[in-house]
Amino acid sequence: MSTPAQPLPAQAPAAATGARGWITRGQATCAFVLALIVAWPLLPDFTVVVASYIALYSLVALGLVLLTGVGGMTSFGQAAFVGVGAYATAWACTSPQAAAWFSAVPAPLLPWLGLLLGLAVTFLIAWGLGAVTLRLSGHYLPLATIAWGLSLYYLFGNMQFLGGQTGITGIPPLRLPGLDLTSPRALGVVVWTVLLVAIWLLHNLLDSREGRAVRSLKTGQVMAESMGIDTTRQRVKLFVLAALLAAVSGWLYAHMQRFVNPTPFNLNIGIEFLFMAVVGGSGHLWGAVLGATVITLLKEKLQDWLPLLLGGSGNFETIVFGLMMVLVLQRFAQGMWPTLSRITAPLFKPTTARRTTPAGRLDRRQLPAVGTRLMDARAVTKRFGGLVANDSVDLHVDAGEVHALIGPNGAGKSTFFNMISGVDDPTEGSIALLSQPMAGKPSREFARLGLSRTFQHVRILGQRSVLENVALGAHLRAHRGWLASMLRLDRAEEAALLAEARRQIERCGLGPFADVPAGSLALGQQRIVEIARALAGQPALLLLDEPAAGLRHLEKQALAQLLAQLRSEGLGILIVEHDMEFVMNLADRITVLEFGAVIAEGPPAEIQSNQRVLDAYLGGADDFDFASDEKGSAA
Ligand SMILES: Nc1ncnc2c1ncn2[C@@H]1O[C@H](COP(=O)(O)OP(=O)(O)OP(=O)(O)O)[C@@H](O)[C@H]1O
């Protein structure tokens, strides 16, 4: 590898250097689990039941944390999936028809068969619903979740083989070999164990390549697809996972209650689950447990206290509960978990990277030889209604050159970038990447062939570290999926991804910032994060949209040095930039756009003396100084 570029002049942030606290967050989690184990046999019966319900609700809220807080999708319909899990096991354990079908299955195994049935039915319903509704965006998606939540709820009540509105009684208790799980105390242990295992699995998922892909969904489709992520597939998988968690909760619920009817699976309860996730802190797994605890206890206490306080019966608790939710959300806009984390932060030692697994290997592409035609756009036209944003543009980029695309505001540069990176399709014309026709293909296919890009308006995960953001750029160079991530079988690959990300961060001069939230950096530095992220994909062709905007003079020099170095390594670079001094000193060739059409193409010296270009930039003045970006006569 070649020498790193001059580091950007910067101070290491305080958060990255401080070291204090007593215990790590991992130790705190272990202490909580230990306390639960010790206290469980001593807790009063009623507390055990309430704690078990909290765990059941937490399981559903966990799915919503993933779906809403992490993936950016809102669902009001999760209670229906709880119902599917509950009804599946109720039917499998009690129906004469099921008894006939599954006569070979011993009675103690029927609940486990019910679990498999519930998971299978949930999987099918969620996959089908997800594939249809998750393409919707804005308020249409929540509305769709309300629609199918209601449909499933009414389906439960109208199916006579599910007992109609009366429901199904006589559900047997769960049994494990040698263990009687009839009592709430015994079953509660199972419920909490399932919850803690689920948290561990999801924590692992989020701390992985696939977790970063899931988090990227929240920023919208464009950035994630440009990193090579199939966003539709990820959204559907996330939706199915959240539904499966709800179904497991329903299964446990049915064997705890020993009867089911449609009421607990209605839309109100779906809204309550969403409250739990949001009130707890919708981006945090433990926020689900906190939210479920707060809301369950609040409802419980309101039911006890309000009749005493108000001296009568009525649904006062629902009214007061609603008002309290408004206050809580107003006070804790991000949920309660982030606030709790902030208050208790001094107790905890900062999390340090402790990757002991030897790094595995990432895919490496064979870079094309210098001079190879990387991208060839011919007669590319893009119309937005009557507006022609790109008018029959021809442009190519070869390996080992820096090609600049310049033009006044609104000339069509970003539109062209979107055409040649698969974000948008040209109305007419052809685009080839490494000789492959690309028209109509999604951005992830462009990324797969070796194109990486940055954005005019920075698109990063502001709350995640610079390291995680940059590692996202190497998504396509690794392969471990969801299951391997959950079971932590991806550690060697993950170590390699993070090592590669750190290497690119150092190379771009952002080393001291690797572990701080990317959103805390200045805008110019965030642009450099995007460049490091693009480089992590080991591209053959790099598209940079205004990379020098917001940088100071020394930072621009460091960036120019880095780009020159990349060119010498054989990368092809296409750059849109308004800083003419930067462009003229760096580019090998320049294409100039005006009103969507190419008005000049050639080396910088030729462009600087091109009268049409001068006219475009200055409206006729002929003494524009490209080296200093100034109009001589006007200065
Ligand atoms: N999605 C869209 N729908 C309608 N018009 C659009 C759309 N995107 C861009 N345009 C229009 O196309 C023209 C070119 O816009 P574009 O953003 O590509 O220019 P630009 O050269 O990148 O400008 P700037 O340097 O200011 O970023 C502008 O008139 C813009 O308003």
- Determine Rg (CA atoms, Å): 29 Å
Total domain units: 3
Mean pLDDT: 88
The gross shape turns out to be elongated
By DSSP (H or I, 4+ residues per run), the number of helices equals 25
Largest β-sheet summary: 6 strands, mixed
Keywords: ATP-binding, Cell membrane, Hydrolase, Membrane, Nucleotide-binding, Transmembrane, Transmembrane helix, Transport
Membrane topology: Multi-pass membrane protein
Organism: Melaminivora suipulveris
Protein name: Metal-dependent hydrolase
What does this structure look like?
By secondary structure, the chain is of the alpha/beta class. It has three domains: 241 residues, no CATH class; 178 residues, Rossmann fold, CATH 3.40.50; 71 residues, no CATH class. 53% of the residues lie in helices and 11% in strands. It is built from 25 helices and 14 strands. The strands form four sheets. The protein has a six-stranded mixed sheet, with helices on both faces. A hairpin with a 4-residue loop joins β13 and β14. α3 packs antiparallel against α11. The longest helix is centred in the middle third of the chain and has 27 residues. The chain is elongated. The two termini are 44 Å apart. The N terminus and C terminus are likely disordered. The structure holds adenosine-5'-triphosphate. Adenosine-5'-triphosphate binds next to β4 and α16.
